[in-house]
Design a protein that fits this description.
alpha/beta, FAD/NAD(P)-binding domain, Enolase-like, domain 1, 3 domains, seven-stranded mixed β-sheet, 14 helices
Length: about 475
């Protein structure tokens, strides 16, 4: 006999588990099915983000930054430690514990909100039916009024450099290395590539990042991208732009990578090669295509403004419906869908989604870059403030980086904020609010910021847009 639910969610990552929890809070009988298995074959909710992406990478970034600071900065604070070493196995164990604590928290939230959580696979059968198969292969049938596809994404596997799980690895494998490679290659200088490259570079790996694009971080305002590249290069990351990988071949000595740069064919040998060229929507085995759910040429599930697919009763949220592939975007889509199913009028502002790269210094942005604003036809004015004179940043020995504000000349509205500097992952929240409420530069200029604080640099950037800064050298307002 089939078990009947109001909402069936297939996928328990950042899109799926919040959708399930919010649906249950709104009175729907809800089940969430998730197939994730960790490398030790233990099931867990949370998807890639909590188990093999956002959370474990941030744990290792934090640990490796502490190693770097102990080795290079503590002496400036008058702290003597003697030679600094680290225990990678202990570092990895801590990373795993951080992830497991959080995934266990999802189980507790399911129980508290009366969500039925099932480990295994869900496959669409049509007519509101879903086949559930547990990890032992036992199958049963579920019936639901609303079925949500929230199966996330998976790393892109390059044909010219296919994953082998040993020498050529994906982002998950890069987080689980048991020793620091002497020579590390990274294909892709995007968010994942720069973060992973930073981790192992800090821990002692000679790291080369190979990027096909001629510009670094093209999605970021180029003034900020250039500043970021300067600092990462100074730290020892060897970032090679305009370098197109031709192939990778494993051998006894490691991985030989051939690439073309400036019309010349070159090669490098690495102990390990991380392929981080992006992610693809994951719908394998869900049965969406077989059921006639519309999927575009890149593999993303097509949905309307209310996350409905073309098949009645079937919805999709998160990475599986398209960029940006960000956990916080997925969370909000899952919640919004649940609320819409309950008749609420929920809408997301896709123009105010923050993005962060957790290197040191951190890179964070929201809204349009200067280049994007001009391409969209805006007449813009900008203000750029440095973290170098910030009293708070100086006290932290982190006074590097820039904050740039892009605004509309005609309306004074802030169009985007891009920054690189200390703790910008936290600072960007004020800018998100500014865009959400259509703030003008004058609105922020009249807002008091605590002193000393990093947020003063954002305030200075806004003041510089109109040449009003007190703690920075004003230049004639630049319009373009």
């Amino acid at each position: 006999m089939s078990e009947t639910y109001d909402v069936i969610v297939i996928g328990g990552g950042p899109a799926g588990y919040p959708a399930a929890i919010r649906a249950a809070q709104l009175g729907f009988k809800t089940v969430c099915i998730d197939a994730w298995l960790n490398m030790d074959n233990t099931p867990a909710f949370g998807g890639t983000c909590l188990n093999a992406g956002c959370i474990p990478s941030k744990a290792l970034l934090e640990s490796s930054e502490l190693v770097h600071r102990a080795q290079h900065e503590f002496d400036k604070h008058g702290i003597s430690t003697g030679p600094v070493s680290f225990d990678l196995a202990k570092m990895q164990a801590r990373k795993t514990k951080v992830s497991r604590d959080l995934t266990g928290g999802i189980k507790a939230l399911f129980q508290a909100n009366k969500v039925t959580g099932l480990f295994g696979y869900g496959r669409l059968l049509g007519d509101g039916k879903v086949e559930y198969k547990d990890h032992d292969g036992k199958t049963s049938e579920l019936v639901g009024k609303h079925i949500v596809i929230a199966t996330g994404s998976a790393p892109v596997n390059l044909k010219i450099a296919p994953f082998d799980g040993d020498k050529i690895i994906d982002s998950w494998g890069a987080l689980d290395m048991t020793e620091v490679p002497k020579r590390l290659g990274v294909i892709g200088a995007g968010v994942i590539g720069t973060e992973l490259g930073s981790v192992w570079n800090r821990l002692g790996a000679k790291t080369v990042v190979i990027e096909a694009m001629p510009t670094f971080l093209p999605m970021v305002d180029q003034a900020i991208a250039k500043e970021t590249l300067k600092h990462l290069t100074k730290q020892g990351l060897d970032i090679r732009l305009g370098a197109k990988v031709l192939g990778a071949k494993t051998g006894a000595d490691g991985v030989t990578v051939e690439y073309e740069q400036n019309g010349e064919t070159k090669s490098e040998v690495f102990d390990k090669l991380i392929v981080a060229v992006g992610r693809r929507p994951y719908t394998d085995g869900v049965g969406a295509k077989e059921l006639g759910v519309a999927i575009d040429e890149r593999g993303f599930v097509k949905v309307d403004a209310h996350y409905k697919t073309n098949v009645p009763g079937i919805y999709a949220v998160g990475d599986v419906i398209g960029n940006p592939m960000l956990a916080h975007k997925a969370i909000e889509e899952g919640v919004a869908l649940a609320e819409q199913l309950a008749g609420h009028h929920t809408q997301l502002n896709y123009n105010a989604i923050p993005s962060v790269i957790y290197t040191s210094p951190e890179v964070a942005w929201v809204g349009l870059s200067e280049e994007q604003a001009k391409a969209a036809g805006y007449e813009v004015k900008t203000g750029t403030a440095s973290f170098v004179p910030s009293g708070r940043a100086k006290a932290m020995e982190m006074n590097v980086g820039l904050c740039k504000v892009i605004a509309d000349v005609k309306t004074d509205r802030i169009l985007g904020v891009h920054m690189v500097g200390p703790h910008t992952s936290e600072m960007i929240a004020e800018s998100v609010l500014a865009l959400e409420y259509s703030a003008t530069c004058e609105d922020i200029a009249l807002t008091m910021h605590s002193h000393p604080s990093l947020s003063e640099t954002f305030h200075d950037a806004v003041l510089l847009v109109d040449g009003r800064a007190v703690h920075a050298v004003n230049k004639p307002a630049r319009k373009a």
